[in-house]
Design goal:
The chain is mainly alpha-helical and 97 residues long. Helix content is 84%, strand content 0%. The longest helix has 27 residues. It is flat and about 50 Å long.
Length: 97
């Protein structure tokens, strides 16, 4: 019975993802958490859907001539270190909880 619940949740999240784009992950994580999925898996589960969607969106921007290399560099240069620092801070915070 849990499998059917996961399938229905996946269909619902997929519908939201299709309508609103990448914001579907903001919907998927709490739905999975409410279904009892451990937090690490609830956060990580939408990632496989986001990666192809992000590449597809980038490809469309490039084809339309809307790609701004300066913005892309800024996102990479600031995003990667920000992700690493955020992960390290979360590990420190976990030790104090």
């Amino acid at each position: 019975m849990a499998f059917i619940g996961y399938v229905l949740a996946g269909l619902g999240v997929g519908l939201v993802f299709g309508i609103f784009g990448a914001g579907g992950s903001a919907f998927a994580t709490p739905v999975l958490a409410l279904m009892g999925v451990p937090p690490l898996f609830a956060v990580a589960s939408p990632l496989p859907a986001m990666v192809p969607a992000a590449f597809n969106g980038a490809r469309r921007y490039i084809r339309a001539g809307n790609f701004d290399a300066r913005v892309a560099r800024l996102a990479i240069v600031s995003g990667f270190p920000g992700t690493v620092i955020g992960a390290l801070i979360s590990q420190i915070g976990r030790a104090h909880v």
